Amino acid sequence: MSLPIIDLDSRAPQLNVPPATGLQKGTYAFVSLGCPKNLVDSEKMLGTLAMDGYTLVSEVENSDFVIVNTCGFIESSRAESKAVIQEMLELKRLGKTKGVIVAGCLPERLEAGGLIAEMPEIDHVVGVFGRDEISKVADRLVGGLTEQRELFRPAPIKAMDDRARLRITPPHFAYLKISEGCDRTCTFCSIPMMRGKHITKPIEMVVEEAEELAADGVKELIIVAQDTTYYGKDLYGDVKLVELLDELDKVDGIDWIRLMYLYPVHFTDALIDRIVASPKVLPYLDMPLQHISSPVLKRMQRRVNGEQTKELVGKLRERVPNLVLRTTFIAGFPGETDKQFAELRDFVAETRFERMGVFTYSYEPGTPAVKLDGHLPEDVKNARRDELMELQQKIAFEHAASMVGYELDVLLDDQVEEGLFIGRSFADAPEIDANVYVSGENLTVGTMVPVEIIRQEDYDLVGICDSVELID
Fold this sequence. Notes:
33% helix
């Protein structure tokens, strides 16, 4: 496999942290796997290490150590994490790095002792909530201390501070994590095992972080959490996403605010009104629905039924102009009948989500769903996933074709070659959605420009920018 090492040259991280004390402790490489929430944790660890005198390098060879921040969500992500760890351990055996630290969700999922028992050549293990002590772990490795190889901390009772990060996203966009953990009890999900209960980051702390990011050149804030619409419930006694968006709208320098991981429960009329009225919140809503059949949703313990889901989707379509909906579904959940799957397929065909992903049900030890009856064969689950994705491909291609002839504001993410750039419209979150390929002269990465869409290439759009006038 190709090593997913963070490359300083290509990703141009922004160091919005105080300079190191002058003491150069050593060099390290870093691998960040998993979701955007995990990426924020990676950036926080990178910032902590930078302040404490460690130097990030783009190659494992000749580094003092490598850190792998892992994902443990489902079996396939755990397998990927373990494969990367094994590859780093092989480099250690070859003498190309002196040590391997494994952090994040995989150690938390396997609990204390589990990962080192499975891969004893790992030097140190750090759980999710030990991230702010990563420099202490690095000090132990560089200092040759071999005892206390694991660092686990209990889930915090207050929100962790994500400021002073070494960002590894492009300078013009950043992820902004507004809470940690999850209070949902979805029967298929292992996140509460790894991330603990929902902890809201106070509004003032989120705003301060947004201001720090804006001062660092960020134009697009991507709001992430395990359950975004639940924001504020634990801290303020009621959901406060509307109030948070009110404050984020006031942050100078931010052009786009993109909302991800919106759970359908607590999606209030006031929130819809705020989205519509906001000059910055995009009409792009990521709302994982998982299914539409009420009996399946009940077995999933989603606390919302099919009719409520359809009512909410209809309300959003009616009230939010130019709405782009992203969602995900699980195919082959235990007990899912042919009729219930057909209901899901018909819902996808009728609703025509602009963006959609489908996962097969993953058997996750320790989750309530493993005890349900009616587990389906893998070939049935795969066939149902493939059927939904074939249907969605046609819908997505037709949506892309409908954009031809329009002018869209496009945020330029990268330059492919002279006069050719890759960007995104409001309809596209980075790395998971489509791209807009833009031809034009005197354009600059990180700017937003008007683009005339001239054709569609599968999911992607192709356009021309004749004006170098930037979008305010």
